[in-house]
Amino acid sequence: MPKYKIEAIDAAGNGFTDIVDATTEDEVNATLRSQGYLVTKIVLHKERKAAQKAKDNSGKTFSFGKVKPKLLRDFTRNLSILQDAGLPVLRSLTILMNQAKPGALRNSLIDVCNEIESGSSLSEAMAKSPKAFNRLYINMIKAGEAGGALEVILQRLAEFLERSEQLKAKIKSAMTYPVAVVFFACGILVFIMYFVIPQFEDIFKDFDIDLPLMTQWLIFLSHKTLEYFYLIPLIPFLIWLFIKTTTSFTYMRFGWHLFLLRIPIFGPLLEKTVVARTTRTLGTLVQSGVPILEAIHITRETANNGVFEKMYQQILEAIRDGDTIANPMKMYSRPSFHPACLFYFFIFLLGPIGALIYMMKMKNKILSDIVVNMVDVGEETGELDRMLYKVADVFDDEVAVYTEQLMSMIEPLLIMFLGIIVGGIVISLFLPMIKLIESLS
After folding, report:
1. What is the tens place of the pLDDT at every residue in 24-40?
2. Which residues are paired to 5 by β-bridges?
3. Consecutive H or E run containing 164
4. CA distances (Å), 389 to each of 146, 271, 275, 410, in order?
5. Cα 372 from chain centroid (whole Å)
6. Using CA atoms in the order 274, 277, 283, 285, what is the torsion angle rounded to 10 degrees?
7. 243: CB partners within 8 A, 6+ apart
C-alpha cells in the first residue's frame, strides 16, 4: 500500500507531520478530516515515489505523437468484448497491454494500469494519458462508470470511432484521384517548360521569324521556369506556411474555416462531413448520459472547425440562459460577413472573382433546416439522441453520394483542363512552325 507524508493542523491549531498508509490521497484526506484534522499538504513518500516511478516506466519504449485512430478503435472494440465477458477492468487492460505493439498506445496502457492499481478509476486513469484518450472518450467512460454500463458505452465508442474512420476514408478516396492527377500534370508541365520549349526557341531564333503572342508568352514562362526552378518545390511549402501562420490567430482561423466551407465544389463536402461528425458526437454523448451542457462543450471542442465551434459556443450560452437547442441552432447557423474569409477568397480564387463568389455565398447556412427541425422534434419527444443519430446517418449517406458525384464530375473537368493546357502549348509551338514552313515553301 502507498505511504503518504502529510502535514496537518489539529483542533487546537498545532501543526504536525506524519507518514500514513492509504490507497489514495482522497482516502488520507477523508480519514484525517473525520478525526478533526485539517490537512495542509499531502505528498507521496519519497521511497514510495521512487519505486512507483521505476514501476511506471518499466516496459515503456520511446514514442512520439498521439495514438493512431485505427489502433484506438481496435483497442476500444477489444476492451468492450472483454468487459462484456465479465473480466475485471484491470485484467482486461493488462491483456490488451501485453498484446499491444511497442508505441504510444502501449505506453499509455502501462500508465493507465499503474494508475488503476494505485486506486484511480478508469476515467481518472485515462485522463492522465491525453495522447491516447481525448475528452470525448474520457467523459463517455465516466458516464459508463456512473451508470454501471461500461461495456455498453465501450461498444458505442467503438461504433463511433468506426463510423468516424469510414467517413475519413470516404473523404480521402474523394481527394486522392484529383490530387494525384494535378501533381503529375504539374510535373509534366514543368518538364515541358524546362526541356522542350528551349529546343523550339533555338529553332525559332535560327530562322529569325516573328513569333505570335501565345508563343512569346509560352517562352516567357519557360524562361521563368529555368530561372526560378529551385523555387518550384518551395511553392507548396510556402502556401502551407502562409496558411499555418495566418490561421494561428483565432480571427484568421475562423475566416479560413469559413472559406473552406464556402469554397465551390469542395465546400459542401466539408460542411456535410462536419455536420455528420458533430451530430454523431453529440448524439453519442447524450445517449451515454453525459449532461447536455458538458456534451455540447465536448462537441464544440471536437468539431475541428472554427465556424461550428462558434455556433456550438453560442448554443451553449443560450441553453445556460434557459433556451432550447433548436432555437439558437437556427439563429446562429448563418455566419455573418467576415473580412478574413473575403481575404482568403481574394488571395486563392483569382482576386475579384473570388470576392464575388464569397458575396454570392455569404448568406448560406451551415446547417440546413432539416437538421434544426429534427433536433426540435427530438427535444419535444425526449429522443434527442435518436434524432441526432438519424441526422448523422443522413449526412453520412449524403457524403457518400456527393463523393461519388464529385468523382464523376472531377474526372472530365480534369481531362478538359489538361486538354486546354496541352492544346495551348501545342498551338503555341506549331503556329510559328506553320509560318516557317510557308516561308520556306
Report:
1. 777 777 787 777 777 77
2. 19, 43
3. helix 150-191
4. 23, 17, 11, 31
5. 24
6. -110
7. 256
